Amino acid sequence: MSRLEAWCLHLALALAGGTGLVYAWMIYLAKPADPYSLVHHPWQPHLQHLHLLVSPLLVFTAGLIWRRHVWAKWRLGQPPGRWSGLTLALSLAPMVISGYLVQTALDDSWRKIWGVVHLAVSGLWVFGYLVHQVLALQLRRR
After folding, report:
1. Which of 16, 23, 68, 107 is the most buried (most CB within 10 A)?
2. CA–CA dist 30, 21 (Å, integer)
3. In whole angstroms, what is the distance from residue 98 CA to residue 96 CA?
4. Are 121 and 91 in contact (CB under 8 A)?
5. Report field, pTM of the whole predicted structure over 0.70
6. 3-state class of 42 per DSSP?
């Protein structure tokens, strides 16, 4: 993977992960000023739209590095960082699919289910990404 590809992935994760974390905080932790309001924070709709606009960048950059980094390392059987990379590879599709399903679900109960699934898998993906970066940094220092 080139340095440009790596920085594009870092930037895409910062944008998608950052907006997703703030949006999740607004939905699950912020107390609405009006108890009958569906919006918990005045910026909530803007953060949702921003998250939806930047998340395809993460999908694109993950696809960009797939063949030269993920698939190449898998074929060669390179063990350093493989478990964290495997976590990333296996959780990418559920994260993306649940993100789309939470937006397209018609029934409120399914929307909540897909929202929880998306939050859990996205959290796993971000955690796996951070672990993968720490392992790569340790490997480079050796």
Report:
1. 16
2. 12
3. 6
4. yes
5. yes
6. coil
